[in-house]
Design brief:
single chain, alpha/beta, Lyase, Ornithine Decarboxylase, Chain A, domain 1, TIM Barrel, 2 domains, 9-stranded mixed sheet, 8-stranded parallel barrel, 29% helix, 24% strand, globular, disordered N terminus, binds pyridoxal-5'-phosphate, EC 4.1.1.20
Length: 496
């Protein structure tokens, strides 16, 4: 029955993008795209960290966001080692901050601290999660172009290690708050270097047209102003040039521009912060943005190589200017958690759509799953590409070009735009989408009143919820026009 409806691979391939080759085996797990622990068991089911996909679906329902704990931890340690070793080869030091916005929960924050990383936050909510997780405040960095006064107060009161200053107005707020609370605060000045990088390309202009940071000239003035403030200490400079970056060149260009300012400020004696670990050299924080593989077409540079390339480039630029290597800092988010995440969905419906290619009709199969843009907004938001595999079993039949879509009332509700899936994908199958550990759960919404899925950590054959899923009751509870049935006539203990 399926065979009649399944298009020939040649025909189906007419709609495939160039980067997606017809696979020999549409059940294979592309190396680098999945967690290192991912494999298939004897029944052909996907297992991650020793836990089989059907078990996860039974226990936690679908969709479920699965996070391979060991993958996260080992990537965190690897990043720290890569940047630390690279800096040590030049007699320097490097700190690594995990960019919490990629995915933050108390457990993940603790994994980071245990792995030797610091944690970056960019809102009161992220700050409170990090503090509640027990991250020492001194190991927290605080970002944002519009940190509100109460957020700055909370950060300074709790002793956050570094605030990354983003505007002149913020500097004046910091001046007022540090005086009012009588607390010292170390800051970095965020520089808009005019370099923006994405994947293989970077663009360098005089000023990048975006909202973050100070131009180089404005950053110089900001440093002078900070120098006048009795309780605000300038610890260094910050630059973040983009995300999903595969090469060194954009970092080198940004570092070169920022180091020119750093050398000048150093000569002027503007760096006054003495860090907890006794650093006397200023900090150069080059941000994050290290790329990962979303599909087999992505070939990111291994972090060790990237770290060495970036740090060597910074060391070269320092040598040219005759200054010692600053204390380096980096802020990876995606490259720590992205590959550790796998989202499991259940297939609900499939249908074949005939598309006119201009040179004859071609078939595209739509595979609808029980989630979508509410648990992964990235395809709709950025046109992000993902891949998918059957997770409950190995499929049979010739590979069919498929588009995995969600259940939302929105035609842009795409989960995986282009993927070859086995010909016999059918309702009730589990589908796994890899590389969903970063920027999926944090961007999740309740669109169409769909509850957000749980996040489940897997390690050593065990699974546990680290962020519980929402229930319909959670959604109803926010709607003040609904009288909760159970609480219609509330009685408290001891009350009649
Ligand atoms: C988003 C962001 C990061 C992390 O980016 P990734 O692409 O997840 O590594 C780091 N630093 C700053 C300032 C950011 O805005």
């Amino acid at each position: 029955m399926h065979d009649a409806a399944v298009p020939e691979p040649g025909q189906t391939g007419a709609l495939a993008p160039d980067w997606l080759p017809l696979p020999d085996d549409p059940n294979d797990l592309a190396p680098g795209v999945w967690p290192a622990s991912a494999r298939r068991d004897d029944d052909g089911a996907l297992i991650v960290a020793g836990v089989a996909a059907p078990e996860l679906a039974r226990e936690f329902g679908t969709p479920v966001q699965v996070l391979d704990e060991d993958e996260v931890r080992s990537r965190a340690r690897e990043a720290l080692r890569a940047f630390g070793d690279a800096a040590a080869r030049h007699g320097g030091r490097a700190r690594v901050y995990y960019a919490g916005k990629a995915f933050l929960s108390a457990e993940v924050a603790r994994w980071m601290v245990e792995s030797g990383l610091n944690v970056d936050v960019c809102s009161i909510g992220e700050l409170e999660v990090a503090l509640a997780a027990g991250v020492p405040a001194a190991r927290i960095g605080f970002h944002g172009n519009n940190k509100r006064v109460f957020e700055l107060e909370r950060a300074i009161e709790t002793g956050v290690g570094t605030i990354v200053v983003d505007s002149e107005i913020e500097i004046e707020r910091l001046a007022a708050i540090t005086e009012r609370l009588d607390r010292r605060q170390a800051v970095l000045v965020r520089v808009n270097s005019g370099v923006h990088a994405e994947t293989h390309h970077f663009l360098a202009t005089a000023h990048e047209d975006q909202k973050f940071g100070f131009t180089l000239e404005a950053a110089h003035r900001a440093a002078e102003r900070i120098h006048e403030l009795p309780l605000v200490d300038l610890a260094g400079l910050h630059s973040h040039i983009g995300s999903q970056i595969f090469g060194v060149d954009g970092f080198r260009e940004a570092a070169s521009r920022v180091l020119e300012l750093l050398a000048l400020l150093r000569e002027e004696g503007r760096f006054t912060a003495e860090s907890a670990d006794g650093a006397v050299e200023p900090v150069l924080n080059l941000g994050g943005g290290f790329g990962i593989a979303y599909t087999r077409a992505d070939t990111p540079t291994p972090i060790g190589e990237l770290a060495a390339g970036i740090v060597d480039a910074v060391a070269d630029e320092c040598a040219v200017r005759g200054i010692p290597l600053p204390v380096l800092a980096f802020e990876p988010g995606r490259s720590i958690v992205g590959t550790a995440g796998v989202t499991l969905y259940e297939v609900g419906t499939t249908k074949s759509v005939s598309v006119d290619t201009g040179s004859g009709p071609a078939e595209r199969r739509y595979v609808s799953v029980d989630g979508g843009m509410s648990d992964n907004a990235r395809p709709a938001l950025y046109g992000a590409q993902y891949s998918a595999r059957l997770a409950s079993r190995e499929g049979a039949g010739a590979p069919v070009l498929s588009r995995v879509v969600g259940l939302h009332c929105e035609s842009g509700d795409v989960v995986v735009d282009h993927e070859y899936l086995p010909g016999d994908v059918t309702p009730g199958d589990l589908l796994a989408v890899p590389a969903t550990g970063a920027y999926c759960a944090p961007l999740a919404s309740n669109y169409n009143h769909i509850p957000r899925p749980p996040v489940v950590a897997v390690t050593g054959g065990r699974a546990r919820v680290i962020v519980r899923g929402e229930r319909i009751e959670d959604l109803l509870a926010r709607d003040t026009g609904i009288r909760p049935a159970a609480a219609a006539a509330p009685t408290r203990e001891g009350e009649e």
